[in-house]
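Narrative of activities, Objective 1.

The group set out to show that a structural description can be obtained from nothing but a protein's sequence at a throughput compatible with the screening campaign. Below is one input-output pair from the validation batch, recorded exactly as produced.
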Amino acid sequence: MKAGGSGSDGLGPVMKPGCPACARIEKIRTGTDPHFVCEMRESLLVVHKHQRYEGWCTLWLKDHHEHLGLLERARQVRLSEDVIDVAGAMHRSLGGGFGDVRINYENLGNVVSHVHWHLIPRRASDPNPKATVWVRPEAETDCGVSDLKLAELVAVMGRAVRG
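Output recorded for this entry:
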């Protein structure tokens, strides 16, 4: 994986000690994150660790910034292109189950203050399809994903994003 992102000194990505996202990015860079799908323009695509909403992915900005609106405009545009490309891949990739999908796009930051996007497929068959996933019971959203399903989703999303 290429380095991506840029520090103010031009020597590489800026990471923040203690940031869980930066720790995850380091894990991706060392090849030890099985959730990693691919590198995008400004972000790293990963399959979310919980898959109650099958296909849930996150895009992590390659370097540490806490506010989307404070990024250089060109980076904001490239990150938006990453989100758009992943959304298109979601619609194309995961079979008939994505035919009736609505994708929720969420850029929060109040739990992990590192710019990232959640892309969460929502279906009519969801327990409460009109409610945000964040209000669902923890046992439902913290359900993990089997190694087999994880490998399948990483492969499917990787193929779809790469075209």
